[in-house]
UniProtKB/TrEMBL annotation:
The lineage of its organism: Bacteria, Bacillati, Bacillota, Clostridia, Eubacteriales. It comes from the Bacteria. Keywords: Membrane, Transmembrane, Transmembrane helix. InterPro entries: DUF3792_TM. This is TIGR04086 family membrane protein. The chain crosses the membrane at residues 12-33, 39-59, 71-93, 99-120. Pfam families: DUF3792 (PF12670). Coiled coil: none annotated.
């Protein structure tokens, strides 16, 4: 069944799992070390960049072409899923500034991941 899923869904699933592992690791480091909890917001943005970059890289490497398009597609798909999760789990309204900042982060990281994925592809 896993072979019949589109590359995009596989990439999103793998990047979400990678992101969850990063969040657990970052949370453990913050909890058990003397680091300030104020580092959580920047580390969260860094985790977002890394996971979207990975998703864009995975998709364009798998296809071997159109890295910019595939990367930005993965970034926007990732962003849409984040917005849906925010609407479900967050009680406060979404801030318009953070909305556009996160959209730019997702699109930019996806594009750069897509470009790198083309360079790593065998095609």
């Amino acid at each position: 069944m896993g072979d019949k899923l589109p590359i995009e869904l596989k990439g999103l699933f793998k990047s979400f799992m990678f992101g969850a592992l990063l969040c657990i690791a970052i949370g453990g480091v913050i909890y058990y070390s003397g680091l300030q909890e104020t580092l959580l917001a920047p580390l969260g943005k860094l985790t977002l960049v890394i996971t979207v970059f990975y998703a864009g890289c995975y998709a364009s490497k798998s296809y071997g072409n159109k890295g910019l398009i595939r990367g930005i597609t993965m970034g926007v798909l990732y962003f849409i899923l984040l917005i849906i999760a925010s609407l479900i789990f967050q009680a406060s309204p979404i801030d318009l500034t953070s909305f556009f900042v996160n959209l730019a982060i997702c699109a930019g990281a996806g594009v750069f991941g897509g470009i790198l994925g083309i360079g790593l592809s065998d095609n």
